[in-house]
Design a protein that fits this description.
- With about 120 residues, the chain is mainly beta.
- Helix content is about 0%, strand content about 50%.
- The strands form two sheets. Strands 2, 4, 5, 6, 9, 10 and 11 form a seven-stranded mixed beta sheet that branches.
- Strand 7 and strand 8 form a beta hairpin.
- It starts with a strand and ends with a strand.
């Protein structure tokens, strides 16, 4: 069982930065791949980034590659999403998710989800 709590969302101007954190409970955090997803009003949930259990492999959506960086600290049971050069179209609720084993871009393969944190980028 894994419980996830996101933090770090907020309101930022276009071009600004935010760092999201996702704190996980459980002693086997380093057995889970972690993903960040987002959902804007009226749109489907979309993949943002994922990281393998070791942190050795990372994956990004084309829309955020080069601007966002996913990382994790297994000693702190935390995964991060550093978001730079934010755009108004990045506005969404961002949720972290955990999947036992290898990472994937598909949200249906993640078994544990946080409640989400709102990110709003003003133009």
């Amino acid at each position: 069982q894994v419980q996830l709590v996101e933090s770090g969302g907020g309101l930022v101007q276009a071009g600004g930065s935010l760092r999201l954190s996702c704190a996980a409970s459980g002693r086997t955090f380093n057995s889970y791949s972690m993903g960040w997803f987002r959902q804007a009003p009226g749109k489907e949930r979309e993949f943002v980034a994922a990281i393998s259990w070791s942190g050795g492999s990372t994956y990004y959506a084309d829309s955020v590659r080069g601007r966002f960086t996913i990382s994790r600290n297994n000693a702190k049971n935390t995964v991060y999403l550093q978001m730079n050069s934010l755009k108004p179209e990045d506005t969404a609720i961002y949720s972290c998710a955990a999947k036992y084993g290898s990472g994937t871009r598909s949200p249906i393969e993640y078994g544990y989800w946080g409640q989400g944190t709102q990110v709003t980028v003003s133009s």
